[in-house]
Amino acid sequence: MSISGVAVGNVKRSVLRSSFPLACLALSLVITSPAVQSKPTASPTKSNLSPRTTGGAGVSQSAARALPLGTKVANHGFRDRLFKGKLSADVTNGEKLLLAGKYAEAQEAFRQGINKNSKDTAAVTGMGLALVLQFKLDAADEKFAQALKLDSKMPMAHVGQALSKLYRLQTSNMNVLQQRNGMLSSAEASCRTALRLDPKLAEAYIVLGQVQKEQGRLNEARSSLSQAIGMDSQYGTAFVQRGLIELKTGDIAQAISDFSEAISLKSSNAAAHYGLGLAYLKQGQLDDAQKSLNTSISLNKNSAPAHIAMGDVYRLQGNRVAAVNEYQKAISIKAESEEAYLRMSDIREMRGDLELALADVRSGLALAPNSVDLHRRAADIALKLEKMDDAMKEYSLVLQYQPGDAAAVKGMTRALVLKAQKDADGAFFLSNNYESAEGLIQQAIQMNPNDMELRLADAKLRAMSGKPVDLTQLGTPTNDAERIAFAEAALAQFKYQEAGQAMQTVIANCTTAEQAFSVGDMALMIRDLDSAEAAYKRASSFGSGEKADSQDVSARATRSLYRVSQARDKAQQELTMAKDLASKKQYPSAIDKFRNAAYLNPRQSQAHLGLAETLEKLFKNKAPSMREAALHYRAYVSLEPNMPEKQQEKFAKKADKCDEIAYKIEQGKPPSKLSAVFAPFGTFASKVENGIKELVK
To answer: How far apart are CA 232 and CA 220, in angstroms?
Structure first.
């Protein structure tokens, strides 16, 4: 969870994200090979701290040691052969070295075999596998192609091709990521070919399971891994992989069983201990999780995912200093570990340090510039900081990677609308930004027709542009994210009571301080100060209930409530200045101040009343201004529910009178299509019309 535009992610973010990227998965499997328990014999790079380019796809060296081959050791009674038939002495030696995790030595052994017989298919294939494991992907692909040219029925060559494609997808290279679906389909086809040639090839089933997992086909992935286990019940990697899938599907008990089985087969299987630690972590068994993860790290100190998981344990225990230390260890192992940056950003935000949270994300993007999750996170934080242009830039990048992404579209729409509200000059509704927002939303709705949040975002945008919107036609919100989106759309129509009721439900549903803070931040962002205040007060009531540092919770609540107070004070200052200017008959300046006061605190009834009265007094000959005055008179009435009935009738009549004046003015001149659209924006409506006329010339 990551957090998204309107979102549930923002409302209910968990320290345990639902999935890891492929690179992280590969890293978690490093320890399935004996090589990771000792220093690798050779490496194609000097360091595993950052991705290196080998044939156009850069990935850290440590991420490349995930091939499920080294889990089989002869003295454990495991199958210790990759190739069938009569083999040369060099190939036999290379095979043993490969299964022992000595990839560079295996490469040399296979090379000797090729030198003696260039048509030795097993030697050529073996060399390809050794190259894959060192992440020399281009060279490996050449060997697999050469092997298949010699013998198209070499199953391990097809498996090697599939694995090479999986490794390429661990890159941050944009061109590669854009081909992800095609590469996964090709990898699956290679696995299928291998299984047609050798239906009992467990390695093919394991790689196929990894491919299916990356495609989101979890049930099929589990079935493929079960097939591998059925062919060889002592294949530890298959149990680990299946356990990871079971964690994703929520079958924690079975995952624990699989990880435990892998450990019983080989007690030094660090990947299995890592998986077991994750399972305990998901169950909230923090002591057991810590014990398993400590074992995993002792077996493989260079597993970034294990350090990230340990950081999560410390965080849930309330030890955020230790948590950050573990995340930093993960980064020192794999500098582009986006999950570590996201976790640290979470901690910064929990403390209320949004600028530092954004800085952590920026640091991650410097090393993983094509990380969708990091760009999305940067956009979300920039939006909270009211850095609208930065937020829109980041959301645009997310949409480049994932066109039609619903969360990014919601976030982009929110940023655009908030920018329009803040600018208050109507330029947004004439700009390419408005057309872009409309287009993005419609595209996203087509791709996600059942997403109520998107429909509500569209309603909000249309309401902001002055178009009539009936929220009742969109259905009833059924979750907190939809309720927040509904509140935003209602606020755009000055329907404060409906918005407040929706937000009250969301706040009441918060069960942790973190959730309540997220809701409060969201409410503050959309200028619903009453809801923001209520959410922050609820956050403070949780204290250390989620094993978070109670001092952090209290301090953040204090800072957040102060921000709400500041917003109210600033709005009041603007209102006071507006009234003073109006009393001095400096009406244009007064209107600007009333507008700003209403922006800073939309629930400030006197700002709406002052704006309505000033517009009516100054622009009785302008239909758009009269329409806007009517709108603000009605907003004033809605914000004063305890107003005497006679007073309600008085201001209702004023609103009707303004609408009547506007109508008469409009009837006295050729009707303008823009008048109705931009009427709520009053004094700048004429600018809007004139602007469009100029554009048309």
So the answer is: 19
261 and 279 in contact (C-beta within 8 Å)? no
According to CATH, the topology of domain 33-234 is 1.25.40
Q: Are the C-beta atoms of 3 and 377 separated by less than 8 Å? A: yes
The three-class DSSP label of residue 465 is coil
Query: For residue 167, how many C-alpha atoms fall within 13 Å in the half-sphere facing its CB?
Result: 35
DSSP classification of residue 603: T
Q: Distance between CA atoms of 61 and 163, rounded to whole angstroms?
A: 15
Beta bridge partners of 52: 59
Q: In the structure, what pLDDT confidence band is assigned to residue 11 with cuts at 50, 70 and 90?
A: very low
Which of 620, 578, 617, 621 lies closest to 600, judged by CA? 578
Quick one: which of 474, 564, 551, 475 has its CA closest to 519?
564
For tokens 């009721």, name the residue.
Answer: 501
131, two tokens:
């190259």
pLDDT tens-digit map of 466-520? 666 788 788 888 888 889 888 888 887 778 888 889 999 999 999 888 889 889 9
* Domain coordinates in residue numbering, the chain: 33-234, 604-696
- Who contacts 307 (Cβ-Cβ below 8 Å, separation ≥6)? 297, 326, 327, 329, 330, 333, 340
Residue found under tokens 């809801």: 531
Closest CA to 150 of 109, 118, 110, 193: 118
User: At 57, which helix (H) or strand (E)?
Assistant: strand 57-59
Residue 650 contacts by C-beta under 8 Å, 6 or more apart in sequence? none
Beta strands in 56-109 (DSSP E): 57-59
431 vs 381, residue with greater confidence: 381
Report the distance separating Cα 590 and Cα 611, nearest Å.
8
In sequence order, which residues have a C-beta less than 8 Å from that of residue 275 and are 6 or more positions away?
A: 28, 240, 243, 244, 247, 255, 258, 259, 262
CA angle 575/580/583 to nearest 5° reads 125
pLDDT the model gives residue 98: 86
Helix (H) or strand (E) holding 53: strand 52-54
**SS3 letters across 222-243:** HHHHHHHHHHCCCCHHHHHHHH
In the chain, pLDDT over 90 holds for what percent of residues?
A: 41
Q: What is the pLDDT of residue 446?
A: 76
Report the distance separating Cα 268 and Cα 225, nearest Å. 21
- In 3D space, the residue among 2, 10, 1 whose CA is nearest the CA of residue 488 turns out to be 10
Q: Is the pLDDT of residue 91 over 70?
A: yes
* Residue 551 banded pLDDT, cuts 50, 70, 90: low
H-helix segments, 250-285: 252-265, 270-282
447 has pLDDT over 80: no
Asked whether the whole model's pTM tops 0.90, one would answer no
